[in-house]
Design brief:
alpha+beta, about 160 residues, Beta-Lactamase, disordered N terminus, single chain
Length: about 160
């Protein structure tokens, strides 16, 4: 199936239903597991293979003053991102979800994959401390909206709660 035949955004009810299923699936695959790498690897796979119009889904872990590539699905990616740089670094510094409808208009955007046109990045906090960010890219412009942000924040809380 090509991206031209895949809807870039689902209807609200369909989107919530999909995210509810993803949250249930995440709980199932991480049940009894607290390992950061194992849980983020499964989370990346769930998102990449189930969200429509996504070409990259993965994690960057906080290491000092930079984010370091963790488990992901998609093309090879940038390995290190300084805090405050690009969408990932901005979300990490702000500790807030950042939704970018057009990455080409985002100051300091880091183009790891030229096919990416929109992006959402969510901080993952544990006990108030930033441990990672979840980064999802799409070849579609304006792919991510308020529903995606809200439901993915629930997804990252489930993940954070399971990590030791």
């Amino acid at each position: 199936m090509s991206f031209s035949t895949v809807p870039t955004r689902l209807q609200e009810a369909d989107s919530i239903s999909l995210y509810n299923r993803l949250q249930q699936d995440l709980r199932a695959v991480i049940e009894g597991e607290s390992d950061l790498i194992a849980n983020t690897a499964n989370a990346a796979a769930l998102l990449f293979w189930n969200l429509p119009a996504v070409n990259w889904a993965g994690f960057y872990f906080l290491n000092g003053d930079q984010l370091v590539l963790g488990p992901f699905q998609g093309k090879a990616a940038c390995v290190r991102i300084k805090l405050g740089r690009g969408v990932c670094g901005t979300a990490a510094i702000r500790r807030q979800t950042v939704v970018v409808p057009n990455v080409h208009e985002f100051p300091g955007h880091i183009a790891c994959d030229i096919a990416s046109n929109s992006e959402i990045v969510l901080p993952i906090l544990k006990g108030g401390d930033l441990i990672a960010v979840l980064d999802i890219d799409s070849p579609a412009f304006d792919r991510f909206g308020e529903t995606d942000a809200r439901e993915l924040e629930k997804f990252t809380r489930i993940l954070s709660d399971a990590i030791a």
